[in-house]
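Sync notes, pocket subgroup
Present: LS, DG
LS reminded everyone that the earlier model was apo-only. Rerun requested with zinc ion included. Inputs:
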Amino acid sequence: MKKLLPLIFFCCTSVVSFGQAPAYWQQQVDVDINVALNDQAHALTGDIKMRYQNNSPDTLHFIWMHLWPNAYKNDRTAFSEQLLQNGRTDFYFSPENKKGYINRLSFKVNNELAQVEDHPQHQDIVKIILPTPLPPAAAVIIETPFHEKLPEYFSRGGHINQSYMITQWYPKPAVYDVQGWHPMPYLDQGEFYSEFGNYKVNITVPATYKVAATGVLRAESKQDIVKTLRFEQDNVHDFAWFADKDFEVLHDTLQLAGKTIDVFAYYNKANAKEWANSLKFIKNAVNTKSNWLGEYPYNIVTVVEKAGASDGGGMEYPTITLISKTANEKTLDFLINHEVGHNWFYGILASNERAHPWMDEGMNSYYDLRYARFRDAQEGRNSVQKMPSFLQKRTPENIEHTLLQTIIGIKKDQPIATHSEAFSSYNYGLVAYTKTAEWLQLLERNLGTPVFDKVMQQYYEEYKFKHPQPADFKVVAERVSGKNLDDVFGLLYRKGSLTAPAAKDIRLTSFLNLR
Ligand SMILES: [Zn+2]
């Protein structure tokens, strides 16, 4: 996710330590969904069938299940409370008809009705009691019908009139890993952690809609005034879809070293000028990361423009991303690169984003900076150096660095290794994103770019389609570089500057004085 410059200050700290990982395993959750959109009631009805494969060495007696649409049910959810804490009152004061929920659930496990218990704190998590314990190396089928009233768009998903952003929308097991269960409520600030699996999703919409979704369109059929589209994608840990009657669509193919993939852009007619070169930006994003990290593994990549006003950002899902309206083409290029880049840092390297936001947002932001240099070279532009020297440090490209230095200067920063929920909303942007990107640049200077690239490529190769932990990244970096990196990695747990501040570093005060 990318939000440009969040604007609230406050401060608390949590430190997550590196742990030694025993033999690696992960659960597998294959998902089949049939879902139909009612665009008069702004509602979904459907059924979901999950095959949950227990690859852990433990016998499971229950499964924590996320029901994230219930984050929008009332003003007593973790989502609602966090928005208030971060200074947003729009959801808290929203009328009933703008809220949302999921109901009409009836969980069966291997055809037997399962007992369901509430989470002690969170309305958007339940515990499915398994009628018989699930031993290691065995699987169960979990099924339920569902009905869902979509909220208006407050955070990542919902609807804006009849433009639908169907995200975090289906019952989804929490991750069970070597540390145990990771149930987590839906939050605006703080992302996700989900199990990999193979998805088959049949989406029924009024025939006038255009639909973009995770994965490849396998079949399409029309029945009177509705149509059903079947999307399939293996080896992903989430599935999102978007439906709008007025999408404009651009398509091309992209030749990678090992295969040809489809590239799609879905956008609103009114913004055709900004989106004219969008396919080129998507291809640049895929090409650069394929070269720097490892080839894009899927056969399709799609970028969708969010309806309505700008909220200054975007959000990533496997093979598909949502981008809010941008002020100009350059910002669109930057946002597309960031969100498409999340296919690597989140989609494929599926770290626990909630606990370690630096591992997805920060690493992805490092490649944003590298992409900006690549694009400047590609376009033959060097906007910063052409300016008078007194202006060079005051360009928007440097504003995040300047804000970071400011917040460090007034000692309101937090360590990079901080949990998403413990970050102030200001530090979530400046530390998890910007400071981590600068920390990776420090690692790059320490190792030299060729060795740094080998580290990142090896990390990708070893942990693609897995759940890497912070310690895993350090182990790879030390093994590939042959160096002890305790000092560099120690900086993740410390507040303050990564290096002694340069004399010419300016702070926000001088930035604001510029007229
Ligand atoms: Zn992001």
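DG: The longest strand covers residues 28-38.
LS: Residues 366-513 form a domain with the Neutral Protease; domain 2 fold (CATH 1.10.390).
Action: DG to write up.
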